[in-house]
Amino acid sequence: MARHDEIRAEMMRRINAGEWPVNRDIPSEVELGVEFGVARGTIQRALSSLVAQGLIERRRRAGSRVVPRTAHASRLSIPLIREEIEDRGFAYGYRLLDRAVVGGPVPHLRLCCLHIADGQPFQLERRVISLTALPQAEAQPFDMSGPNEWLVREVPASRVTTRISAEAADPDSAAMLALPPGAPLLVVARQTFLADAPLTRVRLLHPAESYAVTTESF
Amino acid sequence: MARHDEIRAEMMRRINAGEWPVNRDIPSEVELGVEFGVARGTIQRALSSLVAQGLIERRRRAGSRVVPRTAHASRLSIPLIREEIEDRGFAYGYRLLDRAVVGGPVPHLRLCCLHIADGQPFQLERRVISLTALPQAEAQPFDMSGPNEWLVREVPASRVTTRISAEAADPDSAAMLALPPGAPLLVVARQTFLADAPLTRVRLLHPAESYAVTTESF
């Protein structure tokens, strides 16, 4: 092991053990050079990798300090369901179960679609598309592929809110997902806006045993 | 309404209606100035706010174009449970249900804690802390406040993986959450690492009707 790697490991141990407490200055590079009996460049090299890992923060004209573990934020990305199913090595299937144009003061297109993995129901998509905001949706049959693919391709970037929750399957959804009523579902609900105008909202229902949302943060 | 706002609204309508299709150049600023009968600066002002919203992309030495709605990514942040409960206006309560030091080749501290909102079980925390990585955890009783608060305060930043899923409550967890067995739970599972060393892993179990994870993206 190179000397700077040894020093880095010892620094990690000190951070870990609380010998270098969070939010407090660690010894200066000069002091550490003396302690470890190495040139300042070797200390800097060891510190740099801890800085890169986000464990140590360097401050100009001040010391370096140990960074607290803040409320971690991760990037959450929900891929296209077709890609998600194919990435798992399953054959993707699609069925349009219901399509209705609903008039009234807020005309919208109501869709219910099933996304299938190797013949098994994987996701039930219950969607509403605003025909005020997206009148061109009415001409789309959505019988061969899902509205999400069309939306991603045709509708420009905007604001999206996401809510991930669990619920017991109602009898109707349970039947479409080939589950017993009351079976636990993971539900991803999204609303999409162009500026402040609502474009579409969707509830994506998944059998609990076959789906999870995962993220990673540094 | 200012003229540039009117022009911006008309541009939004065109984007929305597909008259300015995704991934295609829109007319030049000069052409738009002629069409709307305004100075180029007014066109630029209208375009700038669409650029700021991420709907239009300006390219050097090329035209501007409508940005496709890509697979949206959002920031997912899971706050401290105490703050989450208090932010909802509930009184926070805490109970340590189980604490055990487990020896063997991978010594760890096993904890089971209940987080309470206005007297109702809100979150069951099932946690394991590595005593190889964090030997100082063994001295913590965790009888008055949860291990997450201690970890956030004492343990430096690192990598976190998160998995959000749904499941039916096993009889043991159901009893602690005052739910019938099989009730749907929203489960947030997290693993925390310092560099590659696992520090702690936790399963946070929530009654489905009282909890959701929400995010917003632009």
UniProtKB/TrEMBL annotation, chains A, B:
GO terms for molecular function: DNA binding; DNA-binding transcription factor activity. Coiled coil: none annotated. Pfam families: GntR, UTRA. The keyword Transcription regulation applies. Residues 1-69 form the HTH gntR-type domain. CDD domains: WHTH_GntR (cd07377). SUPFAM superfamilies: Chorismate lyase-like (SSF64288), Winged helix' DNA-binding domain (SSF46785). Keywords: DNA-binding, Transcription, Transcription regulation. PANTHER family: MANNOSYL-D-GLYCERATE TRANSPORT/METABOLISM SYSTEM REPRESSOR MNGR-RELATED, TRANSCRIPTIONAL REGULATOR PHNF-RELATED. This is HTH gntR-type domain-containing protein. It comes from Paracoccus jeotgali. The lineage of its organism: Bacteria, Pseudomonadati, Pseudomonadota, Alphaproteobacteria, Rhodobacterales.
